[in-house]
Amino acid sequence: MESIRSKAPSLRSVADLMYRSTRKWNVGYLRYLFSSDVGNKIGMIQINLNASSDFLIWKDSLVGNFSVKGAYWVDQKERFGEKDELWRWIWNSKVHPRMSLLLWRVCSNVLPTGDKFLSMEANTCPMCHTASESAINLFTKCSLAMALWFSSPWPIRIERVSGANMQEVIHNLCSSVDSSLRPKFINCIGVILDCIWNTRNKVYHTGDYVPNVHLIRGEICSRVAELHQVVEENMSQSSNHEGELLPRISTNTSIMVDGSFKEGTLLNVCVKEGKVHNC
């Protein structure tokens, strides 16, 4: 490409290789730029005479539109790493927001499991008591977790799913499912993880609580069915009200919150403003 740019520094688009008035290839110019053989082959490509005019696109955007946010992500790619399609699957509109948030927490490894607290003298899984508690052990290696996965509406041998951490495990699970069924599958995964986490907390904070696999399994099945119904109803309502304008909410109070957890350190921030300015 550098050799071509040196011959034609003003070349900016494919249209510059054509006669604009007739929308035909400038074969002589093509031969000059790309050699006779390549130029002739390009000149044989049929041009759609009804096509619209050329326009610029932002190649790093799925829709081709430039945005400051998109440019920032490209500039900070080394810092954030490559995009993972898992996040797009998790935050799909057909996945319940509560499940999306829980899956994000699990995949980001921010749940307060025993391995996060260095001050704990004995870090043992409160349910199986056979290994140190971590997200990967709690959700995939614990005997109770394996039983719940296998008896769920989507029976899974979770211990056979490869992955060094929960993000890899969830990604490998979701990638094996057809895209049309993936949102329902992710909702089911979220319910299973939520029930395992709630059971863990009951065992950890209540000394006399004994998990009942049959009751938890029944809860998972009923919640998954209910969740699918809620999501379908929400999608139906959103399609029926598409295009309707929502009323503007007027308020004198604005509260902004944020939180972060990393390497055993937690930070919560809450900011309250006395007045909201019109935007």
UniProtKB/TrEMBL annotation:
The protein here is known as Reverse transcriptase zinc-binding domain-containing protein
Q: List residues of the Reverse transcriptase zinc-binding domain.
A: 66-149
Q: What species is given as this protein's source? A: Cannabis sativa (Hemp)
Question: What domain of life?
Answer: Eukaryota
Kindly give the InterPro entries that the UniProt entry links to this protein. Answer: RVT-Znf
